[in-house]
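Internal tracking record. Fields below are filled automatically when a chain is submitted to the structure queue. Please do not edit lines marked as system-generated. If the sequence contains nonstandard residues, flag them in the REMARKS field before resubmitting.
Queue: standard
Priority: normal
Entity type: single polypeptide chain
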Amino acid sequence: MRDDHAVITTARTKPDSATVAAVDVARAALLEDVPAADVGEHLGHVVEGERVVTHLFACERAGYVGWRWSVTVTRAPRQKVVTVDEVVLIPGDEAIVAPPWVPYRERIKPGDLSPGDLLPVDDDDPRLVPTYLVGDDPLDADDKAQVRQVAKDLGLGRVRTLSLEGRELAAQRWYDGDAGPEAPLAKSAPDSCTTCGFLLRIAGPLSEMFGVCANGDANDDGRVVSFDHGCGAHSEVRLAKKHEPVPLPEPVFDTLTPDEIETL
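SYSTEM-GENERATED OUTPUT FOLLOWS
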C-alpha cells in the first residue's frame, strides 16, 4: 500500500477525510469480487463529490495492462461508517480499448459498393431538397407524398435534387481530392485543365469551377476535374527537342542477289 497516492479532484468539494482514508475498506470490498492476484498497488483516489471518493488500484490481470480497479465509497451525513457504492474495472490512459463505434453508414467509403448493393439516403438528408417545396414549414409525410406525385405528374424524373449544402460539400470534396490543384499530378503538370482542349464544360452552378476530362490517355478520363487541376496529357504539351525520339536512319535497299552473295 502506498501513502503517497495521487489525488484527483473532479468537483469543487472539500475532500472528506474519512472516505479518503478508507483505502483498506475499498481494497477489502474489491477482494470480495476479485482474486487477490489480480489486484495491485493503490494508485490514488478521485474526489467525486461531497463525501464521495473513488479509490483506484492497479489491475494485474493478464490481458488488462493499463486498466484500473475502481472502488467508490461514500459516507452518510453525520455518520462515521464508510460504505461501498460500486466496484468496477475501468481503462487507464495506456489501456488497450476498442476503437470508438462508428455507425455502418458512416464507415462506407467510395468504392465499397458492389453490384447489387443498395445505399439508401435518409428522407431528411441535408444534401437533398424536394424538387418542389410545399410551403415554408418542414414537410410531413402527406406533403412528401404530394411532392413526389407532383414531380411524377410533371415528368421531372427527380423527386429531389442537390441542396446548396450538398452542392458545396461535393465541390469541396472534388477540389480537395485527386482531381484538384493540390494533387501531385497537378503540381507537376505543365499547364492547367482550363486551357486544355480535352476539357468538357458542364452546366449548372458548378460550371465555373469544374469540367470533365475527355482525354482517353489521361488518368482523369471521364472524371470531374477542377479548372486548376492538370496533368502531363494536356492538349498543348510539346516535347523539347532533347526529349524527342531519335529519328531512324534512311532505309537501305539491298540489291545483292543470292549468286552475288555466294561469290563474296
